[in-house]
Amino acid sequence: MIMKKKSDREAAQESPAIEVLEYRKKHGVKDKTIKIHDMRSPGLWFRVGQVVQHIYEGYKGVIIEWEFDSKSSSTPMYKVLVDEDTTDENFSSVVNVVQDQLYLLKNTKVKNRLLKNYFTAFDGTQYIPQPWLQELFPKD
Questions:
Q1: What is the value of pTM for the model shown?
Q2: Residue 46: helix, strand or coil by DSSP?
Q3: Which end of the chain is more exposed for a tag (fewer CB within 10 A), N or C?
Q4: Are the CB atoms for 86 and 115 separated by under 8 Å?
Q5: Can you tell me the distance from the alpha carbon of 59 to that of 52, in angstroms, rounded to the nearest whole number?
Q6: Radius of gyration for the chain, computed over Cα atoms and rounded to the nearest angstrom
Q7: Contact 40/139 with Cβ under 8 angstroms?
Q8: Does 45 score more than 60 pLDDT?
Q9: Are 139 and 129 in contact (CB under 8 A)?
């Protein structure tokens, strides 16, 4: 079998989805599907990149994904990358949280070793998603 080398143009057009999924799986973040969320429901309170705090548990984190609960299409669930300074080392670095257990924090940074994989920068208000994450949540 002859292997054809990809041109620079072909390589640049490749989707990072497989690499991203492999990375996320390796770090305990499981994807249900690769789905582009090109519409936002009026029931969503938060966006990808916003910093939130859990009402009862007290930890803070940054939203990396949202999805509606399969049992009730009106209940948004957020995947939150947890701030390592607000939890102990046994706490998962990514958690799923129901919308009404979170509130928005402004001008707050998060410390997490996985942060650079999801975001390019912090603009003083929220985190700016990596291009692959922007593609999955274009309206956020």
A1: 0.73
A2: coil
A3: N
A4: no
A5: 9
A6: 16
A7: yes
A8: yes
A9: no
